[in-house]
What we know:
Shape: globular
Radius of gyration: 19 Å
Strand content: 5-15%
Distance between the termini: 20 Å
Number of strands: 11
Amino acid sequence: METGVGMSFHDIDKINRRVRAADYLTVAQLFLINNFLLEKPLSPADIKPRLLGHWGTCHGINVAYSNLHYYFKNSIDFQFILGPGHGFPALQANLFLDGDLEKVDKKATRTLSGIEYICKNFSFPDGYPSHSSPMTPRVVTEGGELGYALGTAYGVALGHPEKTIAVMLGDGEFETGTCLASLNFSKLISGKNNGRVLPILALNGYKISGPTVFFRKSEREQMEMIRGFGFTPIMIEGDNPEKFQHALHEASKLDDPFIIFKIEKGHTGPEEVDGQKVAGNYLAHQIPLPLAKTDPTQLAQLEEWLKGYHFNEIYIEEKGFTI
């Protein structure tokens, strides 16, 4: 049976399994120093002594990356640029799953030892930093200086008509003058001599300490603002792969598409911690369980969170990844 744009239920399951794998590896990088397959109950000794990184934007990155990976799987001229560089554990999880990380770091194999390696070395001295860095395959600039991704994407497209570049933007990033000014490039470099740029705005509603401006606008205001810059907006709500694939198919028929990807900040993570709303709030931005090493309640929440991805169905030590 077919559903969506040439998609079977098997295809949808395949994308969902990849997202689950990437989400699990993202959370494991943020928290774990031992017990990476949860073969025994989590203990304080399994948690890193210092928790550093960003969770809130990561599920959205994993959803977008997985859907783009599926849609453009047969294209050698597709490129992905990530604006929210602070969501690096998600990017690294995907580079790890694709084997790209192993090409530059031989220890990052798609095995248990590779999982241990990337998790132990995330946000660790002489390891992987919490933001994208020059050691990341194909990284042009370090993440954290938000605003440059869209301009970089148009620069990549310049003079390369064969290329399609998807660029993911954070809605906090969308408040920077650099990002907003870069929206004008769609008209400055349009034409048959340049590549196609597909902006994807991850509209999760919050930045580090409060709500974002664009999220506060009505949907009509959001769509009209994007139209005002000469784009045709396409709205996606939620992480359903069928909706995302439909949006990518629709975008392929337009000259200047712009996807607004509405996804809850911190989705699939803890809903509430110590009586405070976390998922769908700015408190999901960095480490949502900051006391996981010392607080038994937060440790139990982390274990429940990780088990919710059913990683044992996706990675089997004797067989490897089944995605």
